[in-house]
Amino acid sequence: MTFRDRADAGRRLAAALAAKAAERPVVLGLPRGGVAVGYEVAVALGAPLDVILVRKIGVPSQPELAMGALGEGGVVVVNHDVVAAAGLSAEDFAAVQRAELIELERRAVAYRGDRPRIPLEGRPAIVVDDGVATGSTARAACQVARALGATPLTLAVPVGPRGIEVTMLGVADEVVCLESAGGFFAIGEAYDDFSATTDAVVVELLERARR
After folding, report:
1. pTM for this one?
2. Which domain does 172 fall in, by range?
3. 78 in the same domain as 182
4. Model confidence band, residue 205 (pLDDT cutoffs 50, 70, 90)
5. If we measure between CA atoms, which residue out of 158, 125, 160, 132 comes closest to residue 52?
6. Based on the domain organization, do 33 and 78 belong to the same domain?
7. Which residues are within 8 A (CB) of 17 and not within 5 positions of it... i.e. 6 or more apart?
8. For the segment 128-138, what is each residue's pLDDT rounded down to a tens digit?
9. CA 16, 38, 211, 200: dihedral to nearest 10 degrees?
């Protein structure tokens, strides 16, 4: 399955989640691309849309390789195997974590301004991203949502690794993935148009969803 773009992926994902409209969930998009997908889900389900802020903690010499993730509420996920393989110390990890925390706080202000987060305590939530590769960011996002009181919690993505429905059940109550890929893959391979989503687009979609 190939998606034209994130909007197309969001509409197809929304169709698979249609039954959840009755639960009145909060849709939580992972910036940036997950917000573009999540917007379509929120519109289709008549649900509120918010961001779930998580930052990948990358290996210093290979920033795209996640050795963990940082989320709101002080949630930190560590991939100990990657940290060990890269020969990094706890101090090395903490240094990258501090830098990512600055960016996470910047995004909170950029995306929400002075508006508070949508309360999640005791509410169903759907965490949406434009795809899952290693799973560390999605895992952190689910843990953040749980820490903020969301229940039950669904992780919904257009594309992810084979077996994601099993590997992510420890952090989500349900996993919805439209397309599974075996072995290592790049999320962008599932899209005709995987151009970057900007901060300005994220803010626009959040504003549009509120209206």
Report:
1. 0.85
2. 6-53+117-210
3. no
4. very high
5. 125
6. no
7. 41, 44, 45, 126, 154, 156, 176
8. 999 998 887 89
9. -160
